Amino acid sequence: MTERPLSAVPIPILALLTLALVLQIYWGLRTPLPQAKAQALPPPPNHEVIAVASFGESIVASQSMALYLQAFDNQPGISIPFQNLDYATVIQWLDRMLELDSRAQYPLLMATHLYTQVPDPARQKQMLEFTYRHFFAAPDLRWQWLAHAAIVAKHRLHDLPLALKYSRAIARHANGPGVPHWAQQMPIFILQEMGETESAKILLGGLLANNTLDDPHEIRFLTERLKEMETGIVEKSPPLSKMQQD
Q1: What does the alpha-carbon distance between residue 174 and residue 168 come to, in Å, rounded to a whole number?
Q2: Residue 235's domain spans which residues?
Q3: Cβ distance 150 to 240 under 8 Å?
Q4: Rounded to whole angstroms, how far apart are CA atoms 50 and 150?
Q5: Same structural domain for residues 102 and 207?
Q6: C-alpha–C-alpha distance, residues 42 and 152, integer Å
Q7: Are residue 74 and residue 144 in the same domain, yes or no?
Q8: How many domains does the chain have?
Q9: Dihedral, CA atoms, 93, 95, 96, 99, nearest 10 degrees?
Q10: pLDDT tens per residue, the chain (246 residues)?
Q11: C-alpha R_g of the chain
């Protein structure tokens, strides 16, 4: 077959094709580009839906929910700041994960390290209280998350009473062999920083008297600290983060 020259096309047809092309270009220029819209975090699925979807594997379901929640802030075409999330709904997801796997650590790590990064004290306190509430279910397993909550309360929120509340819970309830002494000594130094020297002295004296310490360096340090408190010459308490490293 031979190709027909363009001149063979009737002028009305050419005009129609040209008009269609012009209209298509005009329409394309006038149509706004599609905008990515953030989707609100939905409530977590109920237990029946989770059981069916995970074939009864609750631990796998808990881990899958953690991955979904962690990735939720990165949606197609948009990144959602944590402070724009509904923290009440986030806590529902974290609660459901721990219901499915009571030994899970990741939900508590997400609460204390991930969602406390927002520059919003109210949201930070929501996550700290979530951690405090779940601490009592397994103190010897979850003490480190509450210790970090105390550090956040002290250094980011500058809320010493709140830090004392968390550190006292650790001292009173986390007494297993895997709990380090520095975690149980946190209330002493927070009380001292609050000006409650007498209360700090009583706690520190009792700690030294019950013969539970076996590290000579630690015993010497705490003994010197007690003497400083008694004489009223006390250097600035070491930061909780430094105690954790030691």
Answers
A1: 10
A2: 180-246
A3: yes
A4: 34
A5: no
A6: 28
A7: yes
A8: 2
A9: 160
A10: 556 665 666 666 656 667 666 666 655 666 554 444 446 889 999 989 898 888 889 999 999 999 989 888 765 444 557 778 899 999 999 999 999 999 999 999 999 999 999 999 999 999 999 999 999 999 999 999 999 999 999 999 999 999 999 999 999 999 998 898 888 889 988 998 888 878 777 777 777 777 666 677 777 777 787 787 777 655 544 544 444 544
A11: 30
122 close to 86: Cβ distance less than 8 angstroms: no
Closest C-alpha among 13, 17, 65, 15 to residue 42: 65
Whether residues 145 and 196 share a domain: the answer is no
**Pick from 144, 149, 107: nearest CA to 125:** 149
Rounded-to-integer distance, Cα 139 and Cα 130, Å: 14
Q: How far apart are CA 4 and CA 16, in angstroms?
A: 19
Q: What pTM does this model have?
A: 0.72
Tokens 């209330």 locate to 187
Structure tokens at 191: 């009380």
Which stretches of 32-105 are DSSP H helices? 47-53, 58-71, 87-100
Q: Find tokens 């047809």 and name the residue.
A: 13
